[in-house]
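Thread: quick sanity check before group meeting

JM: Hey all, I'm pulling together slides for Thursday and realized we never actually wrote out the predicted structure for the chain we discussed last week. Dropping the sequence here so it's in one place. If anyone has concerns about the input, flag it before I start.
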Amino acid sequence: MQQQAFQNMIKNNEYHFFVFACPAIMPLNLAIHTWIVIVNSNGEIARWDLCHFKNKEKPSLKYIHKDWFEPREWIYKYFWWTKRFESKLLYHCSGKTDSLAYKLVSWIEDNVEHYPYKHHYWLVWHNSNCFTQRILNQFPGVKCTLPRRAIGK
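JM (edit): ok, ran it. Output follows.
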């Protein structure tokens, strides 16, 4: 997703919940990595995802990362750093207080640090897709199905 398109979706004084996806690094790019981006009513953007490396800035989060990458970007296409994959928006909702977006943003801010599988990362089990799916499962009103390439969901 392009930066300008992302910025245009964010409305002032509203809560926003996004699910993004991107292929994994070559040659494993048949699978995808998913992550969550939230925006509170003050316009503060936070990206949450589970990555394959530990969080050194906040060790208590283990493999959970906040704002490690820009909200809409992901990993480099190759093992050498030349070009990044473009992210794909899988889901977005927004609204004011008591909307689904408000409930999602509030839940994530209050509960993401308590994710039960934050102590490890496995490519085919508890990974970024499991993390994203677990958040989605908390809210039956979210009409988002992760693609089949989201291994571990």
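AS: nice. The first helix runs from residue 3 to 9. The mean pLDDT is 88.
JM: adding both to the slides.
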